[in-house]
Amino acid sequence: MSERFDLSGRVALVTGAGNGIGKRLAKGLAEAGAEVVVADIDGAAALEVAAPIGGMARVVNVTDPASVEALFAAIDAQYGRIDVVVNNAGGGGGNAPTLELKLADWQAGIDLTLTSTFLCAQQAGRRMVTQGGGKIINVASVYGMVGHESALYDLRPDGEPPESLTYLVTKAGVINLTRGLAVYWAKHNIQVNAIAPGMVKTERLGQQISEAAWDRLAARTPMGRPANPDELVGATIFLASDASSFITGQTLVIDGGWTSV
Fold it and tell me: What does DSSP assign to residue 201?
């Protein structure tokens, strides 16, 4: 591996790393040489990911400021620094009709995806300022850039296509949060970027979404297939490494051409 992509000696945190995209990103960062902190609300899942890669597993509720603060305090105690933070935890908001969306569900989605990203970035930023720099990578989505093509998905029990307004709004917020922090923290040598995956067939989503829906999503994607979580690793390592030392405030879209149509 080129030295520019080598993460040896660096400490990386991945939230929501007990499964799905976060799980694969944690493993990928470890493969690049990083010491990885695997954080998830499911402690058993976090430990299962962390053990084979020699990482530290931590339970965290990313919507709770005290829990996030405790996570970073544990990283301080174990490693004394944090070099890379991947804010992957998020999702939620349901697929209820927008006209019937409950305020509690709206708020829960905002807390899980947008507020959590801010809380973790803020804790990381305070430490990175002190140590002279660092990398923050936020996981957004193509649905933070374009509308939700709900007709491609499985119908709700009422026979109507799902609506995911909270998801759209929070992922758009993650993209602009990335831009804002990048500008504010550039003087501290902190690079803040995002990745925006398109359709990624994780193990969990592979079970939740029907094969017929996956076929429709694949047909809508110019490359003719969904992504495998492995295909997000290279971009993440790039943004975590010295190879991206003059890149900040950007969202790297990994969508097989979805947003180019």
Answer: -
